[in-house]
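Hello,

Our lab assistant flagged a job as stuck in the queue for most of the afternoon. It eventually completed. Since we weren't sure the result was trustworthy after the delay, we are filing this so someone can double-check. Below is the sequence as submitted and the structure that was eventually returned. Let us know if re-running is recommended.
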Amino acid sequence: MKFNKLNKYNKILLSTILAASMGVSSCSLDEVNPSGSTMNILISQKDGYQKAINNCYFSLQRYFYGKNGMMFLTEAGTDLWTSRQNAKTYEGYFKYGQGAQISLNNAKDQWNGAYDGIGACNLCIESVDNVTDFASTDEKNALVAEAHYMRALYYYFLVEQFGAVTLNTTLPSGVDLSPTKTEPLEIYKTTIIPDLEFAAKWLPISRPGEEGRALRKSAMGLLAKACLQTKEYGTTEYLQEALETSKALIADCESGGAKYATYMYPTINQVFANANNLENKESLYSVAFSQAGGSTNLWQHNQDYQLFYGNVAKFPAILYKGHETEIGRYSDGLFMPSKYLLDVFVNKDNTLDPRYAAFFQTEWTANNAYQWTADNLKMYDRTSSVTSSSKVNVGDVAIKIVRPQEAAYSDLVSNKLNVPYLVIDYKDLYNDDMTVKMTYTRLNDGSTVENPFYFFYPSLNKFNSSNFTVISASKNRFACDASAITMRMAEIYLIAAEADLYLNGGSGSAAYINKVRKRAGAADIQGSVTIQTILDERARELAGEYTRFYDLKRTGKLSKAYLTETNPDVGAYFNDDYYKVRPIPQSFTDVIKNGAEYQNPGY
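-- returned structure --
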């Protein structure tokens, strides 16, 4: 969908929403808030009401999906990733402060954005019966169902990130400077699940030409996910609904998608193919961005393509500047895969799951003619076979990452220092104890130095896109209009597998998992299914897709013990008493009377 730009009319609506969301605005606008009577006039007609519905989506584009902050809050600090070169970069997210106090405003934008969005949704839900020109009750319900879906999505984020929060389901009549908090399970029971049940009944099946608007399958997918997530809070009440909703989507998908328009691509390579991004048939819900009708600054559009690439431009045969928008050429990302993540792609027969090759870039060709220098011969520990006369020509292999399960690994590694390009051995990136290898002992002089190879690591390529516009090359600003897929059909199979494990001991879990594996070209799993089986499969299929923090919380694995075992560079800093929820933003607690009481423990 191409959302309307925030013209003066929409800004008036948004200004009112910001003021009403929590009584504290996250930004300021020049317009004066209209009175209640003016607002009633503005949205008493379907056209005005539709614009109010549009504003329910604003925060998703501006603060959530396709943004660094959302990826930090859902993927960093888990078993799957550490920061680039395992450094202190964004340590408050990746390593829980690395022993220091985490900034209390780490999730400020998302907190404010969620409550702004909830205010927009509450306005629409509360006002829908005042609209005078709906053609039918069905039309009315289909529109307001978008507000119910979006409110559930915002509250799902809030409770899973912050725990108990303030529950607002109506527009407040004034400013409450002593807000109370409602426990997560209560918010699920009274708001998230009922909202999604309503949306799953009334949202349309399809919206041709309107990508970015919620569909019935969007609500059903999030309903299954939310019902499963309640397991985290010690209840089994909603697990059957998680399973049955998943089964309904799966049945539709396997019978052609006539009922809910569900679909799974037949091969794994099609899922994130550039050509399939803007109208991805496997997506259950995608956040859309558009040059023509964006609600945010262009350079703030989808930024996920930047996040997972190693610093390949560290090697002079690869230029970054001027090539940032070429697929596979981005450099200087923020997320480095953990050894656990890379190892989970190793099958029992010591072959690699096909998704490793599909989802990670491990080879780069030169885009700059390079002749070796004395400094780099020393840094990269070249033997006498490589000299200052050795060259890497444009189009030649410049960097190749190899691992023991691949063909020709032994030959490549035994000769890795004798060639004029970089052969990066997986064993030069990680230690046997699952930590990142921070130092390297050179053969050419025996010196132990900073690891020169840990800049180059397998780089997640799911978010590669050609949907770019150059805004300012000199300022390194590019607009990426790739859609951000927030949930897709393959995850529904894994939700069904997990719900079946809880309800039925896993008697049907393997069948669901194997549907995902078969599509990937992987062999069926054998034997009994455990929670770790499901977590491993979710890692293989969904790495980088805004899920892992929630997965670990739900399964009881967001703990120091588990993270120390799987990703010790992160686990060393995890505290079981505090870090399962984020700090309430100080920008909020500073302006309420009960800020100290409202803040989460430990912050």
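-- support follow-up --
The delay was a queue issue, not a problem with the job. The result is valid. The chain is about 40% helix and 10% strand. Residues 1-35 have pLDDT under 50 and may be disordered.
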